[in-house]
Amino acid sequence: MGHYKIDNINLFISERGTGQLIVFVHGFPFDHTIWDRTCNVLQNDFRVIAPDLRGLGQSELPDGWNITPMEQFADDLHFLLPRLGIGEKRGEKIVICGLSMGGYIVMQYARKYRNELAGLVLCNTKTITDSPAVAENRRKQAAGLIDGTLELRSIADAMIPKLFAETTSKEKPEIIQELRAVIESNQPAGVAAAALGMAERLDTTELLGELEIPVLVICGSEDQFSPPSEMKPLAEKAKHGTFAEIPNTGHLPPLEQPELFANTLKKWIHSLPQ
Ligand code: MLT
Fold first, then answer.
1. CA distance 164 to 3
2. How far apart are CA 153 and CA 67, in angstroms?
3. pTM of this prediction?
4. CB of residue 28 inside a 6 A radius of ligand 1
5. For a pocket test of ligand 1, which of 100, 124, 204 has the largest count of ligand atoms closer than 8 A to its C-beta?
6. 6: helix, strand or coil
7. Which of 5, 64, 174, 252 counts the most CB atoms within 10 A of its CB?
């Protein structure tokens, strides 16, 4: 647990356990805590690392910074890992797992640094770009956050009803309150920079088809952002793809069903070639 300086800013990282390294990359506009419950399950078997991305959670944004491309987030992680003593042992490879925006980021990691990867996990995400309307909406959102006409509370109000499965809303309302607090405590400038970065991201579908590494595609059965019907084809597109659907779950399986999510991941990691 701690802060590490990269590019003159402090990035926060939660770290625990020993063994095969798994790096968890959160979505938008969240922070590392979406992985806490899952890491509680996995920490007995693996070394689990969950950073706050630049400008989100406890991680800083450089002065005057206004857009964070997905590639920049991936570069931050790449330069951060050696600081944690990772990659120093010959042949040590990591499993990297990204949820939603985190998925856009881990695809950039795979594009640039695939030799470092033992496996790639795409969780509730997509490989296509935004439609022009979605991209425009993100630009408006970023402008509103910067000029103060849009509050993070309004972003939480708009997102939360679509994020969770019915079971979660009924049986685990505390999770929803926790996530609301995470969204509302973020820095508007960091959220705006990530939104602009997402709006200009490139399509990575063809890249997915070229990767030689094992890919696990996981999704919640009730996800409205990246439904199973859109995620299953990603596993089929990958050369070495596996698909898993987590029942009674929306956009946030590591938070909504941490045991099931963690055990699915664990089983897949144990099946990877040594
Ligand atoms: C996320 O959870 O990261 C967002 O839904 C991603 C997006 O807005 O495309």
1. 31
2. 21
3. 0.97
4. yes
5. 100
6. strand
7. 252
**Residue nearest atom 9 of ligand 1, based on CA coordinates:** 101
Domains: count for the chain: 1
Q: Going residue by residue through the chain, which has 274 residues, state the pLDDT in tens, using 9 for 90 and above.
A: 799 999 889 999 999 999 999 999 999 999 999 999 999 999 999 999 999 999 999 999 999 999 999 999 999 999 999 888 887 666 789 999 999 999 999 999 999 999 999 999 999 999 999 999 999 999 999 999 999 999 999 999 999 999 999 999 999 999 999 999 999 999 999 999 999 999 999 999 999 999 999 999 999 999 999 999 999 999 999 999 999 999 999 999 999 999 999 999 999 999 998 7
Q: Calculate how far, in angstroms, residue 80's C-alpha sits from the geometric centre of ligand 1.
A: 23
- The domain that contains 134 carries what CATH number? 3.40.50.1820
Burial of 252 (0-12, 13-18, 19+ CB in 10 A): buried
Structural domain for 49, as ranges? 2-270
Distance 159 CA to ligand 1 centre (A): 10
